[in-house]
Amino acid sequence: MTQITPTPDGFDIEAALVAEGFELPVGDVQLLMREGKITSRLDQGGGEDAGTFRLVFFHRGTRLTLIVDESGQVLRRSSIAFAGEELPAALHRPAP
Q: What is the pTM of this model?
């Protein structure tokens, strides 16, 4: 079973979950992250979304989003592939 584990600084995510979302071999995930070819951000929910977190991963033209609760349980998952080779940097930032 693929796990997302809460930590004091955010979450630990098993590479298999990211690999599946980008259709990559599991062994490539850590290397691509070290090289900056897979990037991520963490957003904390507020208001109606309090107690949830959005884990967003970017690789080439694809954005993988996981909405999780405080325990790391995945509530929603989505992946979208954009036309073009790379996502614009503005899509890597949280919404204002």
A: 0.84
**CATH 3.10.450 is the classification of domain 4-92:** yes
Token output for 29: 């995930």
Q: Cα 86 to the chain's mean position, in Å?
A: 16
Res. 2: pLDDT tops 80: no
The DSSP result for 34-91, as a single string, is: HTTSEEEEEEE--GGGTTEEEEEEEETTEEEEEEEETT--EEEEEEEE-SSSS--GGG
What whole-number distance in Å separates Cα of residue 55 and Cα of residue 47?
18
Q: What is the DSSP letter of 8?
A: T
